[in-house]
Specification:
The protein is mainly α. It has a domain of about 55 residues. The chain is about 55% helix and about 0% strand.
Amino acid sequence: MSALCQMTGLNRAGFYRWRTPSQTLPVEMEIRDELQKIALESPAYGYRRITVELQNQGFDINHKRVLRMMRQDNLLCVRRRRFMVTTDSRHHLPVYPNLAAQIAPLEADPQPESELALIYAFARQICHAANLHEI
């Protein structure tokens, strides 16, 4: 078989894929129908849970095929995050006032570049003194 494929310029895998009949269309449509029903009933189900549901209903299908079909049909899992309460306000301890709300911001320095220039000049003097000391 490989010699025939070589003579015709086809690869062997493509020949065998062409030779075997594809899966029948009604089974595919039945799987898609059930997949969509499960996804609409339980929108938080991902492809793994839907795979288990389909297998429980008697379909011979694996998770990779279910994921591919869900992507084709745009049936993505919707995550619902629970609101997480991080503060326990119901306690008997005293509640202190928010002092930060009363603080007004200070005025910005009108010439911040001048401070940087002084620091840069000071650093140059130190480097220059260190170079003179080494000689």
